[in-house]
Amino acid sequence: MKTRTDSSRRGVRRASAPRPARAKRPARAQAGSENTSYHHGGLHAGLLEAAERVLERDGLSGLTLRAVAREAGVSHAAPTHHFGDLTGLVSELAAIGFRQFNDAATAAADSAGSTANEKAWARARAYVAYAQAHPGMYGLMFRTERLDMKRPALHEAAAAAFAGLAGSIAAQRDEEIAAEALSLDQAAAIVRAWSLVHGFTMLLLDGRLADILRRLPKGADVATLLDAMLRTSVLRPPSS
Questions:
Q1: Which of 16, 136, 162, 197 has a CA-to-CA distance to 204 between 20 and 30 Å?
Q2: Inter-axis angle of helices 222-231 and 116-133, to 10 degrees?
């Protein structure tokens, strides 16, 4: 009897002890979870912001759909749903880069002096400054083998950036430059200016100017070197 009584008591004790509720697993990867954190189309923009952070931190080789999803804190399927594939994602990201770049160049020109030379000078400085501030994005913008230039957003943003450059050259030359038709001389002027500033920028980002910068006179820096180069090359100094 005693054994049965003890057994019964033990059974009662076991029955009376409530079983702890199982913790629910977070629904981070569920289809509707992204809508909790991102509203009104914000996930699309959030993924692009995450992609830019990954690009600047880990470089283009580290920019994958999974890396972007992890950075944004959403399911791995989210980037594919919004951009289709990695080409779609980097193309949309490059479009943002071209818009940022063109906005910076335009703002610099608008805040410069009133002459065409002063505005062109300011655009050149802004070109280099943007690349220094966003080296990953700047590099992506010119990796055409990784981009789909037919995507509307990228095509329009790149075209606007080119139009800004062409317009600056047209103002310096005091002539109209047609959007779809260039004279040989106009094309040469645009390419000459672009090559000069882009080449300088790439050498700077690749660290190839470090030895030259080290040898500059005291107080001279990248901006000083850029100004001196422009003064003796394509762009006439603002004071002329």
A1: 162
A2: 140
The C-alpha atoms of residue 51 and residue 48 are separated, in whole angstroms, by 5
Q: What is the pTM of this model?
A: 0.80
Q: How far is CA 210 from CA 128, 216, 221, in A?
A: 15, 10, 11
Alpha carbon distances (Å) from 137 to 35, 107, 111, 131, 146 = 28, 19, 24, 8, 13
* % of the chain beyond a pLDDT of 90: 75
The token duo for 196 is: 């000069």
User: Which tokens belong to 234?
Assistant: 């394509």
Contact indicator for 34, 74 with CB cutoff of 8 Å = yes
